[in-house]
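agent: user wants the full assembly modeled, not chains individually. Plan: 1) parse entity lines 2) check alphabet per entity 3) run joint structure prediction 4) return tokens. Steps 1-2 passed, two entities, 841 residues total. Proceeding.
--- entities ---
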Amino acid sequence: MTTDPHREAPTAPLLSVRTIEKSFPGVRALSGVSFEAARGEVHALLGENGAGKSTLIKIISGVFPPDRGGVLVDGRPVDLARPDDARRAGIATIYQELLLFPELTVAENIFMGHAPRAGLGRIDWRAMHEKTNALLASLEIHDLQADRVVGSLSVGNRQRVEILRALSQDARILIMDEPTAALTEYDVTRLFDIVRKLKGRGVAVIYISHRLDEIFAIADRVTVLRDGAHVATRRVADTDAAELVQLMVGRRIESLFPKVTVPIGKPVLEVMDLERRPLTRSVSLTVRAGEIVGLAGLVGSGRSELAQTIFGVTPADGGEIRIDGQQADIRSPAQARSLGIAYVPEDRGTQGLVRPMTVRENFSLAALGKVAFGGFIDRGAERRLAGDGLKRFAVKTSSLEQVAGKLSGGNQQKIVLGKWLANGPKLLILDEPTRGIDVGAKAEIHRLMGELAAQGLAILMISSELPEVLGMSDRVLVMREGRVVAEFPREQATQESVGAAMMGSHENAEKAA
Amino acid sequence: MTAVTLVSAEVSPRRRLKVLASQEALLAIAVIGLAIAVGLYNPRFLAARNLSDVLLGNAYIAVAAVGMSIVIVSGNIDISVGALIGVLATISGTLAVNGAPIVVAWLAALVAGVVVMALQGVIIAYLRIPAIVVTLGMLSILKGGLISLTGGKWITDLPDSFHLADIELFGMLPFPVFLMIAVTILAALWMRYSASGRAIYAVGGNAEAARLCGISQPRTIVMVFALHGLFAGAAALLYATQLRVIQSTVPPNLELTIITASVVGGVSILGGVGTVVGSTLAAVLIAEIASALVFIDVSPYWIRAVQGVLILVTVIADILRRRRMAGA
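--- prediction returned ---
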């Protein structure tokens, strides 16, 4: 056992991930990713949303198998067909959404599935409590009792229960997926203390986080992923925030995004000091006719929440929204729609598409007023509307009567987009318009966005893909912690400048230095 | 049945095949096929008198199942409808016996049905309490209230003019059968061609997407329940007027028979899919099976088991169809 992570291990590394490849229908999620973690090492995984981190950790935890490549523990290949295989190999994963039973006690949660037995299948409650207390003592956690009900605990304490659960199963490799996303500063400090103790015991920690300052504070090495590929592995001591941001966002061909310059008109949307706590704080912005404004930021920075507040899903508590210069008090999506706002939500599965309905019915859903007369739908008008949308968006479907849920992701996204445009909006809010769809469908949606802007539509686009934001936008706004923290005209928006504003890494770079 | 239903799950690009494999077509084939099969075994089954009795005695279940189907398509369920039909029948009968104008007695059942169901709809939609809980509560209130208030007595001496079910249109079409067919066709057209009908499918298929399209989920649900109450009122009138007495106890598990008709009729228990034509055909099929059991010398008590098999087969087929649609 070693506490020096920089020492070259004389034997095989504790965890070795070899050229993992994984594809989902229409998407290549991972293309040959490898990294290693030694005993007592904290190894950070860094990458944009969609870079493949989640897929990678799911493969290591046995949630689904890789198409190619494999995982070695102690130099021996392990077959990770099921989560149980990973557990037996000493791999434990702590997901963002903690998987605990809120009605049960701390001890019961820790030993769920492997409780000490007392013969005849009975649970040995005394042994269970003693073991729990020993685990608590070993990590010097003094504010947690074995018989507390988990539902009454703070998020930080619940996370500690999950860590203890992993240790109770003798986990030697601990994967933590954005463990600090929901923690207070104090809990973050305590988490780091625990991680250091685990290091001291020779546990390898795979640490996934967006927060660069944390990576510099706790990690020994960092592996950067981009578009499902391994970009670089660096010792934290040998790198800095600027280099990591650059590795993360990379340099991709901007001609992928055929930006058409169109004349920009009058403001369509003006937002002033908009408030809806906790994730919309005094936001002001303007989107003009013919303009595409990109909204960049990390997950959880408040971009989708802002969009939903403008669209009336979660009406604002304060501030002002103007549409075409007219003050608008938007209290519901129906109202937003009648004002000429269209919103294509982030999650097309749950928010956008009615899967059991046909293509025709989905197309007309947001524009029923246009095809219904006296409360009854004119089938001819509806078919024309849907047929036009089908052609305009080049949706690949066998017929208008095809059930929408059966189409590919890209085609579903085109229907969701087309549905909103059937209504002839002035302002289009797009939330992650190309997430999870293949390159061809992506390019087509980008081309359509350009066309729509050329027709005078004002577009507000939320995207976690920095190249998309930079390629498509006339102007880029950056959100962090519910505020708009930076604004760049197209010429000044670079991966470095926008990336740094997203991460707040001016400050972090100083901290690290 | 299983194999055939599974075929319907395949979305065939050839539409003609698809129509033949629809749940409605399968049920129609089953209704006719069963009549022929049982008729071959025992020709008395096909006697006009028997077939008409089967339809007359069960039309009210089909009418109630139309409302139930709309409720289930919207992503909800109602288990209070059986008890409500008993209450509405009693209200109407009591008014008629006590000398109220017959039309008032009839209208009272319809109005009370709409009021009770709309109230449940408001609680479900605006307080966001699951429909199964709200309607379970209402079931107990209605059942308990009815027994307490009537003391379990039957209503007799109903005026002759009260008996809606006795009317024969054009001297040959019994009113209950006419109402069953009319309600089914009107509701089917409304569900298929009206904007409100489309809203019900949207709310049941994906409430979040519907909301973002500006469709008010609460308003849609209240409308659905109010309509369901109207159909329950109509069903109660058929039930109340088909015999010379009104019993204070409705047939046990009436609500389950009604839900069975909807589900076997192809209405997805998960919401968003199904038609009222299917549920009416299924109600007829279930009644036909119950009658057929007698003619083939099987204890009629088996009807519950048969219903159970029908439900499981249809629900499993529906779930498999959904999985295939999810495609993952």
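agent: reporting back. Chain B touches chain A at residues 11, 13, 15, 193-196, 198-199, 201-202, 205-206, 208-216, 268, 272-273, 322, 325-328 (CB under 8 Å). Residues 2-326 of chain B form a domain with the ABC transporter involved in vitamin B12 uptake, BtuC fold (CATH 1.10.3470).
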